[in-house]
Amino acid sequence: MGNNEYYLVDANVLFDVVRLVLMVNPLFETVLGSPGDIEAILMSVVNKINKRWIASFAFLSRECRRGNCFITEYTQRIELPRVFTKLLLSGDLSITRVGGSLFNKVERLTEEWFRRAQSLFGIGVLGMDYSDYEVARGIVRVYEKCGSRPLKRVLDNAMDVLLVATALNRGYNLVTTDKRLVCGLANQVVTGLAQAPMGGVCQADAGLGVGGRALSTRVYLIHEQCGSLQCTRRERWC
Questions:
Q1: % of the chain residues with pLDDT over 90
Q2: Does 235 map to a domain?
Q3: Where are the alpha helices (DSSP H) in the chain?
Q4: Average pLDDT in the 27-48 region?
């Protein structure tokens, strides 16, 4: 990590940030209303906060203050609406019943929260082009050689594979909370998973040869068990 590095952020990292904000905001409102009960209120809320949410927020706060963090167009238009649909169905967020289609309401909710992320962390949206697709196809070809089952697993995770491919193609560090993805690509695309010099974050290398180019980048996996995290043979897609 350094001043000139760029980061491509997975939707799940923003999902963590939203859940942390949703948990903490009511705390401040309650404390302001009942300052005498602050210790009891703090203890009741702290126990409910996932440490990974804090690690995700801390990572973005530390690394994304220079306009060097991005999400892809696919993340903005497809993955984030899925995130907010989860939050609606879980009851963590609500929408009004009056007027408009459900999709339009989810879309507006997504835009509103992404504006907050832009304000907090300066996150931008990265346009994708054909060269990103070519690298994604390169990843698929690696797994074609492993057989039909590994190939199916890669194609079942096509959106995530495209995210990894875009990070490789642009030389951007990938930031994710998705252990399933990182371990799925282990040994073939992702190697050297180890704990980074910060709490709750693992670091790995990603590399691929495509069209005579040797592509490489780093992967930062935000996970509660980074100190002892290993990818099992079953978790690897090949």
A1: 66
A2: no
A3: 11-33, 38-46, 51-63, 73-74, 80-90, 102-121, 130-144, 148-156, 158-170, 179-184
A4: 61
Q: Are 11 and 83 in contact (CB under 8 A)?
A: yes
Which residues lie below 8 Å from residue 133, measured CB to CB, with a gap of 6+?
A: 162, 165
The residue with greater pLDDT, 66 or 144, is 144
In one letter, which amino acid is 52? R
Q: Which residues contact 83 (CB under 8 A, 6 or more apart)?
A: 11, 12, 14, 15, 18, 110
Q: Which long-range contacts (CB under 8 A, 24 or more apart) does 27-35 make?
A: none
Residue numbers of the domain that contains 90: 7-126
Per-residue pLDDT tens for 66-101? 789 999 999 999 999 999 999 999 988 888 777 778
The structure's pTM equals: 0.89
Among 170, 204, 167, smallest CA distance to 184 is for 204
Q: Which secondary structure element, helix H or strand E, spans residue 70, and what is its range?
A: strand 69-72
pLDDT at 228: 77
Answer with the one of 74, 106, 126 that is the final residue of a domain.
126
Angle formed by the axes of helices 11-33 and 102-121, nearest 10°: 80
Q: Which of 79, 98, 126 is the last residue of a domain?
A: 126
